[in-house]
Structures are given as structure tokens and as C-alpha cells.
Amino acid sequence: MAERIDQNLRGKWSPDEGALPLHALKWLGGRIGLRPQRTPAAPGSTLEVPASALSEAAAEALGAIVGVGHVRLDRASRLGHAGGLSYVDLVRHRAGGELTAPDAVVLPASPDQVVSVLALCAEHDVAVVPFGGGTSVVGGVAALRGDKAAVVALDLGRLDRLVSVDPVSRVAVLQAGVTAPEAERLLEPHGLTVGHVPQSYERATIGGFAATRSAGQASSGYGRFEDMVEGVRVATPAGEWVLGAAPASAAGPDLKQLVVGSEGAFGVITEVSLRVRPRPAVERYEGFVVDGWETGQAVVRALAQARVLADVTRLSDEDETEVSLALAGGVKSAAVRAYLKARGVRRPCLLVLGWHGGSSREVLARRAASLRLVRGAVRLGTAMGEAWRHGRFNGPRQRDVLLDVGVCVETLETATHWARLSELRTAVRGALGDALGKAVVMCHVSHAYETGASLYFTVLTPRDAHDPVGQWKVAKAAASEAIAGLGTISHHHAVGVDHAPYLEAEIGGLGVEVLAAVKRALDPTGVLNPGKLIPSERFRG
Ligand SMILES: Cc1cc2nc3c(=O)[nH]c(=O)nc-3n(C[C@H](O)[C@H](O)[C@H](O)COP(=O)(O)OP(=O)(O)OC[C@H]3O[C@@H](n4cnc5c(N)ncnc54)[C@H](O)[C@@H]3O)c2cc1C
């Protein structure tokens, strides 16, 4: 667990050294006019961390609950919990902007300890930022104190157990701090899987997924994370709350769904009861290319509406397909381009489909049902599908090396109904292009529903060396304005700080009031995650 507290990993995703290949640098030079600049990944000693504002009395009392060694006031621990992993967070850790560190890091070892910590923090006027994997990209773990005297990061890494497995009902209870790979490792002997595979898989936690309504790459087959949540155990300053007595219930509104997505503002999720599935014996991934975005989205819509989506269904637009081929480089991508040209595909859009099942027969039957609707596509076979699977977690590493050479590289996401999907995509691309000038704006659909789909954008542009944070903030605001009214401000990254100003436009003033009222009931003095989810001015503790 201790290795998770590593400030060096706040400036990049992984400690592995890597460099951008020459062909990719050349391509970026031509496409966005990049002139490479060096950015240190972890300047370490140059970052300023002010003296801790946590009172001695509070630190001692916290130590009495969690153990003295588990209240950390040292610089490395505090820097290791200063913010999440958005582009702006990474830039700040590379000394490109102001960084706010918590006054201390507190590591409870049990749900009961979390309840006691919250009561104590309320008594000592200390804000609490629940911290899972710290992979938030919307400011969800920013160390904001609001109107409190101090702020601590509540690292849930010691809540790392598989509590129980009910193989008959296919329900497993996991503690909140269990990371996704660890959850799979713990469930493997039972022949079970969670099936939640976001790109942040390697570092994010079960509690974080529940707190943000996360969606993984296989959401078409396994569902979004909230679909998997059977129950939650939550610590709040008002006491413990346990929800989820049955798989379905008409006992009033579904209160567990009020906790799921509450981003640490209502309580700290300490255990999650999850619907789990048998581990697939067979997984088959294939690549296809369709001609143009409109054709591609019509195919995905047809699959969704006929309810024959593959477990992984991912459509890249022309720009994303071009970048994938350009950055991959080599003989193979040149051969693919030549082949597509020969087949008359003018605007290649890559479609990756992946089916899971208990046997080859089952997988092939599901594949056949899907492929009946994938008309007019060029098949690139399992090699292309497997290449995608092999590189499915490479995004954050590629981001590290792009950052190293001075690229502003960030993502944002939304969702809307099919009838508006293209309008929304055009609006966001236009807003980002206008704000950033020479930029590549890529887009893909990776979560599809009968009535609509998500859109996920990745932006590459030369970084403004003088004000990298301001450069992205302007672009992000422009994109958020474009989204408002056409789609949701977040399909799966959550609200955090970044999207809080846009929440009211989506859920209405009454909606914000309802959230504030729930917070008042569970967290009357407002110690939990100030400034996240509910804008501070709308909540008075
Ligand atoms: C490179 C990269 C790729 C990503 N890809 C995806 C993706 O494919 N799909 C996706 O959905 N998201 C993705 N994300 C976003 C992020 O990984 C998710 O939001 C994830 O669910 C956060 O989990 P975490 O454990 O890191 O939570 P954290 O970042 O630690 O916390 C997220 C929020 O939840 C709160 N919180 C954390 N744990 C608890 C708890 N136990 N109780 C109450 N509140 C808590 C925090 O205070 C914070 O507000 C990505 C992020 C990165 C950096």
C-alpha cells in the first residue's frame, strides 16, 4: 500500500521510462506544429509545500484512532495526495502551476475507524477528502479545505480486503480501497470477475468507481459500475449507513444510487457489494473499418437497438483512426492504409468489437448476431482487435511521453441521445478548435445504449509554455459551454470541481437543492470534500 503514496507518480502515470518515437514526433511537428520542449516529470524538491495546518490535538486524536504511523505529515505523503491525474494536475506536479497539498494523510484500516475519523474531523473543523486511487481527472481529490481550519486526505488503501463471496447469488463484497487488478486477483480463485475495465484500471479503486459512476471499456457487456453495485456501506459524520438488502426493491427511491456518484460529498464508501460474473473462458477481439463517422455511428446504434452489442464496442472517428495509425508507425500501419485505399475506404473509422463468453461456441454465436448488423465494413481481423486489447491501457503512458515533449494532451467526455450525437460532436470539436488553434481533436464512442451513446474526446496541441493551466482551462470552458444543453456534462468522469459550475444547468436549481439537503442530513458541518459535486456557495454547513 505504502508504494501508492509516491509523489513521483503524481507527475506521470508510471515509473517506466519511455520516449516518443521519431516518426511520432515528426508527425506531430507536421500536424500541430510541435517544437519539442523538455518538461521534467517530477521536479520533486522545487515544489512548495506549506507547513501543515493540522493542529497537534487533531493529529494526536487521529493517531489514536488509526495508529500513530498512519497519520502522515511528511512532505512526500502530502505531495503524493495533492490532486488527481488530470492534465492540469500532472502539469502542476511538474511545477507548471500552483499545487495544493493536504495538511496530512490519514490511513484508516476498517470501516469503524472511518466512522470515528469523520466524527473527529467534524469536531476539530477539519475537511476530509476521500482518496482512492487518486485518478480523478475532474479535481475530485483536490485538497480543498473550504471554510475549514485544515484538510486531510483520507487514503482508503488499507481497506483492501475481499469481505465475502456468495457464489450462489454471484455477489461479492469488497472493501473500498481494493484496486481493480487486486479485485480480479481476489476473485479469480472463485472463478468470478467484476468485468470493470476502465483505462485507469491499474490504479483506480472499487470505492472510487462507485463514488464516480465509472464506466469501463466493457460496459456494453458488463454494464456501468452503478449497474454492478448491489449495496454499499457508508461512513458519514452522522453515522453509518448500510444499503442494499435485495437485488431489486420498491421500498421507495433507490437510496444506494444516491450514494453511488456522490463523490465523497455525502459519506465515505467503505464496502461495496457487487454483482459479479463467471470469468470468461474465451475473449475474441476483432477490428473493422467503416467509411465515415456517420456510417460508423449508425452501425453502433443498430447493434445497441437490436441488443447485440459486443461486450467491448468502440468506434473511433477519422482523426482518432489517423492518429492511431500515425503513432503506431511501421510497415504494418502503412500496409493497412494501402489496403483500405484499395478497398475504396476514403474516411477510415476503426471499429473494435470484443465478445466474452464461456465457450468458443457461445462467443461465435454472439459474434454472428452482432456481425449481421455490421454492414459494409472492411474486416481487419483478430490481429487488429488483439492489437487494441494489447494497448488498451497505454493511453496514460502515451500521455506521459507527449507531456515530456511539450504537448498539451487531455481528454473530456459527454453523452447524449442518438438524434443529437453528431451535432454534439461537431459543437465540441468546433469549440476546442476555436479555443486552441492548431490542434488535433479526436473522438470515439465506447459506451453505447439503446437511446444514445457517450462521446470521448482527446485533444493534442502544443503546450503554452507560459500558462499551460490557463490554456487548458479556456479550452475546457469552451467545450463545457458547447456541451451544456446538448448532452451531459459528464458521462463517467464525474463532477468534481471542474464540472460543478455546469451541474445546475443540467439538473436544475431544485436538483442542486436536493443534493445540498441530502448533504446537510449526512454531513451537517460540511467537512466532506468541500467544493466537489455541489458548488460551495450552494451548501452552507
Ligand atoms: C488515465 C486515466 C484514464 C481514465 N479512464 C477512465 C475510464 O475509462 N472510465 C472511467 O469511468 N473513468 C476513467 N478515469 C477517471 C477515474 O479513473 C475514475 O473516476 C475512477 O472511478 C476514480 O477512481 P479512484 O479510485 O482513483 O478515485 P479517486 O480519484 O481517488 O476519487 C474520485 C472521487 O471519488 C471520491 N472517492 C474516492 N474513494 C471514495 C470512497 N471510498 N468513498 C467516497 N468517495 C470516494 C474522491 O473524493 C473523489 O471525489 C480515468 C482517469 C485517468 C487518469
Automatic annotation (TrEMBL):
Site entry (Important for enzyme activity), positions: R314
MF terms (GO), sorted A to Z: alkylglycerone-phosphate synthase activity; FAD binding; oxidoreductase activity
Keyword Flavoprotein on entry: yes
Binding positions (substrate): R399
InterPro entries associated with the record: Alkyl-DHAP_Synthase (IPR025650), FAD-bd_oxidored_4_C (IPR004113), FAD-bd_PCMH (IPR016166), FAD-bd_PCMH-like_sf (IPR036318), FAD-bd_PCMH_sub1 (IPR016167), FAD-bd_PCMH_sub2 (IPR016169), FAD-linked_Oxase-like_C (IPR016164), Oxid_FAD_bind_N (IPR006094)
Domain of life from the UniProt record: Bacteria
Cofactor(s) the protein requires to work: FAD
Keywords in alphabetical order: FAD, Flavoprotein, Oxidoreductase
Residues engaged in binding FAD: P130, F131, G132, G133, G134, T135, S136, E263, G264, A265, F266, G267, V268, I269
Annotated ranges, domain FAD-binding PCMH-type: 98-279
Name of one Pfam family that matches: FAD_binding_4
Gene3D superfamilies xrefs: 3.30.300.330, 3.30.465.10, 3.30.70.3450, Uridine Diphospho-n-acetylenolpyruvylglucosamine Reductase, domain 2 (3.30.43.10), Vanillyl-alcohol Oxidase, Chain A, domain 4 (1.10.45.10)
GO BP terms, alphabetized: lipid biosynthetic process
Active site: Y456 (proton donor/acceptor)
Presence of keyword Ribonucleoprotein: no
Family: Belongs to the FAD-binding oxidoreductase/transferase type 4 family.
Protein name: FAD-binding oxidoreductase
